[in-house]
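Reopening this one. Same input as before:
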Amino acid sequence: MSTDEKEITIQEEIDLIKQKLEEQDKLSKEYLALLQRSQADFINYKNRIEKETKDILFIESSNIFCEFLSYRDILLDAIGKEPDKKLKETLTHLLISYDNILKRFNLEKIEVIGKDFDHKTSDCVSKLEIKDENQNNKVIAVIENGYLQNNKLIKPAKVVVGIYVQEKNLNGDIK
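Same output, byte for byte:
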């Protein structure tokens, strides 16, 4: 074999090796991209599962707290109706303990009385006609207190909302 033929053969082998390297490089880039997509999919999946788990825990704990809060309302009602001073004092201490438990779980009562009705935090159970225009669409009474936990609604307040009605005289004219 001549030197020229040896050079051609060596060149062909080099070209063949380069071609195989390019194919392997292309294949490794495809595998890398696949791995990166899989990793991103897994991270997204993990984040979604964590969020769903937190949401489920919040919903379930909210249900438990709502049951717990209904007993607080009963206790409040009992304190208001109890004529015996000693028993009333005992119930009041029980209410204080109850409220301390609520604070430990970051539950706070929604203050709605005298404020504009907000359908996001309150349910209107009744409307009452009022003569004061400034009280229109304001909460004028609370039937059941509403509560937030860490600024998330767990129980909406049940309220009475004032609706302004203009007075009419005997002729049907608005005063």
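So the earlier flakiness isn't reproducible anymore. For the record, Strands lie at 107-109, 122-130, 139-144, 147-149, 152-155, 157-164.
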